[in-house]
Write a structure and sequence with these properties.
alpha+beta; Heat Shock Protein 90; Ribosomal Protein S5, domain 2; Rossmann fold; 3 domains; 8-stranded mixed beta sheet; 5-stranded mixed beta sheet; 19 helices; globular
């Protein structure tokens, strides 16, 4: 790995400000004190090792979740400088861990060419938000150690022995008086470290969870970099070309891109800046899209695939079925907003566009078979887009001719304030009838659906318009689909899927969620989609108010509570609801629709990559991965078609 010739000593560690406010307002520094903020502590320490890897000095990072939720992160980088800092007059290592904005990431002569993390606040913030922290450093032939409690030094840096090699080890216990929970989720950390390993070619990252009797362990190292990342993302998809298109250039702004087309109808482009996931895109994504559209159209014209009379392919046509990862390294990135989710550096657009123009055009010329397969799909997508446009216009014209533009089965609410309105998409006419009678007509609308709907994972937009199952949903929500979707036009602030608690109900939920994810994704991102939770059981007895239970655990708890009151299990009548239609309107209101008593699950999308993988796995064309998934998870199934 190339080593950047930058000094990394006391002079490069610049002090910008103190540490006082971190414990008082932790959310300002790590986003929240929820489990997400807890995980962020680990990411910040790992990012310091990744910065060393990006500079060419670290090849391995080990993360261990020890018993008691203690985190230990070890890297074989250069080790934090140990000499006395000229401004703070304490050791440089102690300065890094006790002074906010003290780090090797600032200024032209900084210790790093590029870096991620919180721009130098990471180590000190983690220290401030930990009950205790211990830092061990191998550097200059010595072994050094220091320790802290709640951000304050309790043991200054001292040399405790000799050591070969270099590196830093950090152990810390997050402060339970600050965080809502200290229980780390192994799968969340594992996913993030796999992603980092893909983005940092050749870096080996291991994670081990020692909290259970049988430890979990995973190791990630990808010499293929983003090429391996795209292959991983497409592992359950049918590929149009076996090997991803790979583009890499190390200049003032290093760029790495991998592209592979699949037979699916969705586009999946993931962008990163200095290993930070820019989920809102930015200038690097803009440059990539511009170049992709231009190169594909130019090639199609020059090879007579597009005739003179044909219109140019649009960007959305060219991106159908694409999986791409775009990663850039920017020395001084400018992010829009506090969350670092959108890159704002204008110069990056031209750098990425120029590079992709040249490299992709060369690839297409050298690989005419792949080029033809991709462009055939693009042209097919273009035709489908035009068919979808005509179908959409037909639906609009038909709606305008009718007395009401809303679906006939929709029982709308009287309020027109989207913020207070909600629509229940209900499985079956029977349950729909009960819901219509039991609802609060002022703010609750009911849309009954019957039968299985279209699996959009296997269909284009032109098949969706006019579909008798999906079109009522599109029209009721009122914001369009796909590229035309406008979140500001939604008619209901809550879109609630209410289906039976059985296999068919689960299938309907999955089909609807697939549709929302692929064609109304902002609806999920904005937090407008919910799952209703009807009860599974009803316990009743003459003279006793009915007791509803939503899970098996709820049922067992209810039995025990009633036994404490002298009511035996034998005296109780147990009903297992097989469907929503078994409930009368009053029961449906009391258990599932009353805002004061109901249980709603908000559908969120914290991880778009994982969501795409699951929808592809469950609803896509590839059967083998789905069969493996079913076999691995069959043991967790309960109440199968009772």
């Amino acid at each position: 790995m190339e080593k950047y010739n930058h000094k990394y000593g006391a002079e490069q560690i610049q002090v910008l400000e103190g540490l006082e406010a971190v414990r008082k307002r932790p959310g300002m520094y790590i986003g929240s004190t929820s489990i997400r903020g807890l995980h962020h502590l680990v990411y910040e320490i790992v990012d310091n090792g990744v910065d060393e890897a990006l500079a060419g000095y670290c090849t391995e990072i080990n993360v261990v979740i020890e018993e008691g939720n203690i985190i230990c992160v070890t890297d074989n980088g250069r080790g934090i400088p140990v000499e006395i800092h000229p401004k703070t007059h304490i050791s440089t290592a102690e300065t890094v861990y006790t002074v906010l904005h003290a780090g090797g990431k600032f200024g032209g002569d900084s210790g790093y060419k590029v870096s991620g993390g919180l721009h130098g606040v990471g180590a000190s913030v983690v220290n401030a938000l930990s009950t205790w922290a211990e830092v061990t450093i191998k550097r200059d032939g010595g072994l050094y150690q220091m320790s802290f409690e709640k951000g304050k030094t309790v043991k200054k840096l001292e040399k405790i022995g000799e050591a070969e090699g270099t590196g830093t080890k950090v152990r810390f216990l997050a402060d339970d008086t600050i965080f809502e929970t200290l229980e780390y989720e192994y799968e969340v950390l594992e996913k993030r470290f796999r992603e980092i390993a893909f983005l940092t070619k050749g870096l080996k990252i291991t994670i081990e969870d020692q909290r259970e009797e049988t430890p979990k362990k995973a190791e990630f190292c990808y010499e293929g970099g983003l090429k391996s990342f795209v292959e991983f993302l497409n592992k359950n998809k049918e590929k149009l070309h076996k090997t991803p298109i790979y583009i890499e250039k190390n200049g003032e702004v290093p760029v790495e891109i991998a592209i592979q087309y699949t037979s699916s109808y969705s586009e999946n482009i993931y962008t990163f800046v200095n290993n930070i996931n820019t989920i809102e895109g930015g200038t690097h994504l803009e440059g990539f899209k511009r170049a992709l559209t231009k190169v594909m159209n130019d090639y199609a014209r020059s090879h007579n695939i597009l005739k003179e009379k044909d219109s140019n392919l649009q960007g959305e046509d060219i991106r159908e079925g694409i999986t791409a990862v775009v990663s850039v390294k920017v020395k001084e990135p400018q992010f829009e907003g506090q969350t670092k989710t959108k890159l704002g550096n204008s110069e990056v657009t031209g750098v990425v566009q120029s590079m992709v123009n040249e490299a992709l055009a060369t690839f297409l010329e050298e690989n005419p078979t792949v080029a033809k397969a991709i462009l055939e799909k693009c042209i097919s997508a273009s035709r489908a887009r035009e068919a979808a446009r005509k179908a959409r216009e037909l639906v609009r014209k038909k709606s305008n001719l009718e007395t009401s533009t809303l679906p006939g089965k929709l029982a709308d609410c009287s309020s027109k304030n989207a913020d207070e309105c909600e629509v229940y998409i209900v499985e079956g006419d029977s349950a729909g009838g009960s819901a219509k009678q039991g609802r609060d007509r002022k703010f609750q609308a009911i849309l009954p659906l019957w039968g299985k709907m279209l699996n959009v994972e296997k269909a284009r937009a032109d098949k969706i318009y006019g579909n008798d199952k999906l079109n009522p949903v599109i029209v009721a929500i009122g914001a369009g689909i796909g590229a035309d979707f406008d979140i500001t036009k939604i008619r209901y602030g809550k879109v609630i899927i209410m289906a039976d608690a059985d296999v068919d109900g689960a299938h309907i939920r999955t089909l609807l969620l697939t549709f929302f994810f692929r064609y109304m994704r902002p609806l999920i991102e904005n937090g407008n989609v919910y799952l209703a939770q009807p009860p599974l059981y009803k316990l009743s007895k003459k003279g006793m108010e009915d007791k509803y239970c939503y899970t098996d655990d709820d049922l067992e708890k209810a039995y025990k509570e009633l036994e404490e009151k002298g009511i035996t299990r034998d005296a109780l009548s147990l009903q297992r609801y097989k469907g929503l239609g078994e409930m009368n309107p009053e029961q449906l209101w009391d258990t599932t629709m009353n805002p004061d008593t109901r249980i709603l699950i908000k559908v969120t999308m914290d991880d778009a990559i994982k969501a795409d993988e699951i929808f592809t796995l469950l609803m896509g064309d590839e059967v083998e991965p789905r069969r493996d998934f079913i076999q691995q998870n069959a043991k967790y199934v309960r109440n199968l078609d009772i």
